[in-house]
Specification:
Elements: E1 8-12, H1 16-27, E2 31-35, E3 51-52, H2 63-67, H3 69-79, E4 85-86, E5 90-93, E6 105-109, H4 110-116, E7 126-130, E8 134-136, H5 138-151, E9 155-157, E10 162-168, E11 171-177, E12 180-183, E13 186-189, H6 195-200, E14 208-219, E15 228-231, E16 235-238, E17 244-249, H7 259-273, E18 281-293, E19 299-302, E20 309-313, H8 317-334
Parallel strand pairs: 1-2, 1-13, 2-9, 5-15, 13-20
Antiparallel strand pairs: 3-8, 4-8, 5-7, 6-7, 10-11, 11-12, 14-17, 14-18, 15-16, 16-17, 19-20
């Protein structure tokens, strides 16, 4: 499907993926309106560990897409005021994920690890270090992208729920919202875990479920962690503001595995691993709902059933937001299909 020239485009979702889409589309001259049911970054973006990495275990159908993620963020840093990635590198050890080291990774011995992370009580004999990895404040990045989109003429409507869509001759013509009807040439569904329910309003079933994960934030002494540490005991990093961030898998809904209990248990593990961590205090613990396609592969592309509806749902959204925003804008505005997105098309579920 080819679309010539600027389009009147509605992006549904003001998380980091929707914000990246808005920026890239508007910078190409499209008239963009971002519609969000809540506030900016009020969904999973606000509860993301936001580790910018390309690691993946096993065969990767989106290797080209994942491999372009870091370079895309480095480009965005030069284009978008206020968007900053902390390129601290990442240290991994003691995990059983089976991830193969990349061509850019280094194997460090215990002495090198101790120099990199001097607060580790017991540096492991060896660890993999990825100097090119980084992390960002996903909420601040979303605000920066939306501000940059606004500078190109994009508009933002928060607290505006989508009630339905208007269709004429098999093509979307508008979005019905709580504030009225918005005309559209193209509608992009980029609402994270809510994308599937939006597709249902178009009588389309997309197998995207909400996958929970636990995000935690602690008050901590400055300089406790220098890089991103991923080990059998903890996954932690320190933000630019000094807050210590941690992530854990969601286990179940029993009381001992609720976010507050997990935060206390994770704090104990951090104290066991890091000298100087005795004073850390839980500041936030919550569940984030990640949009997880049934086969684990992002869902990116036009819906076959309704012309003018483009879907953009994925995990990891923060990692892929920059490159996906770039490639999707080229598809929608320039009509240039991206080979890196070929495995992501929604048609695979709708045959």
């Amino acid at each position: 499907m080819r679309h010539e020239g600027p389009k009147n485009i509605i992006v549904i979702g003001a998380g980091i993926v929707g914000a990246s889409l808005a920026y890239h589309l508007s910078s190409k001259g499209a008239q963009v309106t971002v519609v969000e049911a809540g506030g900016i970054a009020s969904g999973v973006t606000g509860t993301s560990f936001a580790w910018i990495n390309t690691a993946y275990s096993g065969p990767d159908p989106i290797a080209a897409l994942r491999g372009a993620a870091i370079a895309a963020y480095r480009r965005l840093e030069t284009q978008v005021p206020g968007l900053e990635v902390r390129w601290t590198g990442a240290l991994s050890y003691g995990t059983d994920e089976g991830r193969a080291p990349s061509s850019s990774s280094m194997l460090l011995d215990s002495a090198q690890i101790a120099r990199l992370e001097p607060h580790l009580k017991k540096p492991p004999p060896q660890a993999v270090y990825e100097a090119g990895h980084g992390a960002l404040d996903a909420v601040a990045a979303t605000h920066a992208l939306l501000a940059a989109a606004a500078s190109h003429g994009a508009t933002l409507r928060t607290h505006t729920p989508v009630l339905g869509f208007t269709i004429r001759d098999g093509r979307v013509t508008g979005v019905e919202t709580g504030s009225g009807l918005l005309a559209a040439d193209v509608v992009v569904l980029a609402a994270g875990a809510a994308t599937a329910s939006l597709a249902e309003k178009l009588n389309v079933n997309l197998p995207i479920h909400a996958s929970p994960a636990i995000f935690m934030r602690y008050k901590a002494p400055p300089g406790l962690v220098r890089s991103i540490i991923s080990s059998h005991a903890m996954e932690v990093r320190q933000g630019a503001d000094g807050g210590l961030l941690a992530a854990e898998d969601y286990l179940d809904d029993t009381p001992e595995n609720q976010p507050a209990a997990m935060a206390q248990r994770t704090a104990g593990a951090i104290r066991d691993e890091l000298a100087g961590a005795d004073a850390i205090e839980p500041e936030q613990a919550c569940i984030g709902l990640r949009p997880m396609p049934a086969d684990g592969i992002p869902v990116i592309g036009y819906l076959p059933q309704v012309d003018g509806v483009y879907v953009c749902a994925m995990h990891p959204g923060v990692v892929l937001a920059a490159i996906v925003g770039q490639l999707v804008s080229e598809e929608i505005v320039d009509g240039q299909p991206a080979a890196a997105l070929s495995a992501c098309r929604p048609a695979r579920f709708l045959a």
